[in-house]
Sequence to fold (176 residues):
Amino acid sequence: MKTTRLISTLAFAFMMLLSFNVEAQKFSGLDKSPLDVSYYKTSRNAPPIARVIYSRPQLKGRDANTLTQKDKVWRTGANESTEITFYSDVNFGGDTIKAGTYSLFTIPGDKEWTIIINSDLNAWGSYSYKEKNDVARVKVPATKGKDSVEAFSITFADGSMHMAWGTIRVAVPVSK
Fold:
């Protein structure tokens, strides 16, 4: 009986110690540029054609045109380089892209943007970007929207990948 009570007491004490350790864990706050995912599907139940994983920087009273450096390679979002996966071969702005996962970079301009599909993965920002690893470069017009988009956004609609930030709008046709 004493042995059982001793084992029970020790087990209870051990469990209490574990619960204190769980309470002591510190978790970081919400990222200032939260991660988001956008899927391209032809219908709700259809398998995806593409997926984009990216971080969403916020304007917070700043101008998107000054946050995206003109004529310089941009990570197309915040933090890690934006990642795009094509689940089958696609036509991306006129170029054929094989199924696979790539980095998505852009070169913003006043009247047009260059959209870059690059084979390098797992990069932070565009610091390690290498042009020699480009799979495709597509030039698309940059237009101005009437409403301002606070958080950088990528979505798929009407057979195109759309990017918006502030009043900047860019669209790239994507098809199977």
About this structure: The first helix runs from residue 2 to 23. The first strand starts at residue 35 and ends at 40. The CA atoms of residues 3 and 160 lie 71 Å apart.
